[in-house]
Write a structure and sequence with these properties.
Strand order of the largest sheet: 1-2-3-4-5-6-8-7
Structural class: alpha+beta
Radius of gyration: 14 Å
Strand content: 25-35%
Largest sheet: 8 strands, antiparallel
Order of helices and strands: EHEHEEEEHEE
Number of helices: 3
Shape: globular
Number of strands: 8
Length: 154
Amino acid sequence: MTYTVAFDAVSTVGLESSPVADALAGLRANEARYFRNKYDHVFTVEAAADAPEVVDWVHLILREERGIVIASRPLEATAFQVEGIRMAYVFYRSGLSVNVMYSLDDAGKRAVGFKLAEGMEVPEELASRFRFARQRSKLAGTIRGSFFVIKNAY
């Protein structure tokens, strides 16, 4: 079942099993606000079990580019296209959000972003590989984020 993420009233629908459900819901709402304001796109998600192709694509890129396997269970996922950019998001039980920004133009930008919900530890599989910058969000509190550039074609 698809869920439309609201950013005016943060909801933990679909994320209840996360130990940081409130912060993860704020992080998800923060993404929804960004896409609504920048692209006038309505951010929807579905259970990860209902979007295996999205989860598999994100996991393929993580594994092939950096040998990363996320230990946490995926809860929700989404994929969509805005202005020639394929976007994919996976939200994990731990409070981690992984997004892939993949320009359809070969000369465009392609990257993987990581965001950590407030209150979660840096996952072991990322801790030694990335430094996380902090940003404040009215919806999500303190978000820690990092990224890497995708070098291959997927």
